[in-house]
Amino acid sequence: MNSGQYGGVNQPPYGVYPGAYQTAPPAGVHTEKPPIAPYVGSLAQPAAASPEGPTLWKGEMPHDDVRDDPNRQAPAPSAPPITLMERLPGYENVGFQNEGFLPPPSYDASMQMPTIRPEVTNIPRISEDAAADALIQFASEHCCYGKKAARDCRILDMVHSSAFHYTLETFTETRATAWASQPFSGQPVDDPRYGPAPGAWDIPASPPQKFANACVKMEVPHTASVKPCHECFAMGFKRCWRCMGRGKVVCDSCGGSGRGMAHSADGHHRHESCVCCHGYGRKRCCTCNGDGRVVCGVCAGRTQLKWFIELTIKWDNNVLDHVVERTALPDELIRGVTGKLAFEEEGARVSPINHFPDETVNSASQDLVRRHSHSFSQSRILGQRQHVRIVPVCQCHAQFKEKPFQFFVYGFENRVHSPEYPQKCCCGCTLL
């Protein structure tokens, strides 16, 4: 095939094109995209077209070489008319994008078992020796903090308290379907002759791990078919989008003149042949290597596509939490340390806790469980779990050289929060 032959002059060969293409593509010019039939249904929308698509890539091959643009991108592939796709029972409104999730089966709340919850005991506390050692360790971890204040300060008072960290996790599954394709190279085709397609929620699938995000895609059984590639009219090649099928482009270095300006050592300028095109003004298209056509990116040159309905399953672990802390210690610090696991519960559904000694935790549990119960109408809830951690907090009032200050020790790691530390060796330091 000569350079530029597949550029709009010749009509593509006849073939078996379903629907509007029972005979052949339209005679005359070969556009990059076949004529689009009207789309039917709210989900059947065509793929977004490239801004250059309607003007640069259809019609006759240009008479003159186009100027090379190294930054030009290949146009996005299109989708075929939705009218060419089979209407399978239960999947009549499937489009080419996952535009909506399928409603899950209903949940029978009567299957939930009553919960028996133990009493919360043994509240952890931080001793005075542990608080003093934690302050010394805190000062040693900051190069600009003097350690003398940590060693010689006097702890005047210690106020013990507990922070409560309540967490609710809801593990959900969502499913969506869309038409998908892959180049056909002889792989098995599970078409509707083998039976009716199962419903999207009837296809068994298990998450790799509970309460962890994951996503899988699979072919819906008995929905596959083989069709000619709509992007290249089943030819396997398309007109090169960079040179418009001519095989060569105007040199972007010299602008097609074939000459460039050279600067000599004595300051004079002279014209010489362009080093990029060797004085020709044109150069071979590097995208198609001068052939004027490129392999179709949709069918990978196979000329046929295997179409099927693809099921996308997403598992999401949705987390809400609430911190109850009544000192000046920032709440986000409580989330980053460990504490005692005072209560943990897991089931298909969990009910709000109502037995915790701190009523604020009970109220937070009731609010978060209620919010999650109304948040996943398009998902199936596979399980829920909730737990409460008790994090020890000690507010210490101390004195160093008659200067009072306070610091907080919190968590089983005995971390320290002390924005008032009295011995900071240099200015400009930021307390982390």
Describe the structure in brief.
With 432 residues, this protein is mainly beta.
What would you say this structure looks like, in words?
It is a single chain. The chain has 432 residues and is mostly beta strands. Helices cover 10% and strands 28% of the residues. It has 5 helices and 14 strands. The protein has helices spanning 53-56, 128-140, 148-152, 331-335, 359-373, and strands spanning 154-183, 214-219, 225-228, 237-239, 248-250, 259-263, 269-273, 282-284, 293-295, 304-324, 340-347, 380-400, 403-410, 415-417. Strands 1, 2, 3, 10, 11, 12, 13 and 14 form an 8-stranded antiparallel beta sheet that branches. Strands 4-9 form a two-stranded antiparallel ribbon. Strand 12 and strand 13 (403-410) form a beta hairpin. The longest helix has 15 residues, at 359-373. The radius of gyration is 35 Å and the shape is flat.
Report the mean per-residue pLDDT as an integer.
Answer: 82
Count of helical segments?
5
Query: SSE order in H/E notation?
Result: HHHEEEEEEEEEEHEHEEE
Oligomer: single chain
SS content category: mainly beta
**Silhouette:** flat
The total of beta strands comes to: 14
List keywords for this structure.
single chain; 432 residues; mainly beta; eight-stranded antiparallel sheet; two-stranded antiparallel sheet; 10% helix; disordered N terminus
Which SSEs are present, and which pair or pack?
Layout: H1 53-56, H2 128-140, H3 148-152, E1 154-183, E2 214-219, E3 225-228, E4 237-239, E5 248-250, E6 259-263, E7 269-273, E8 282-284, E9 293-295, E10 304-324, H4 331-335, E11 340-347, H5 359-373, E12 380-400, E13 403-410, E14 415-417
Antiparallel strand pairs: 1-10, 1-12, 2-10, 3-10, 4-9, 5-8, 6-7, 11-12, 12-13, 13-14
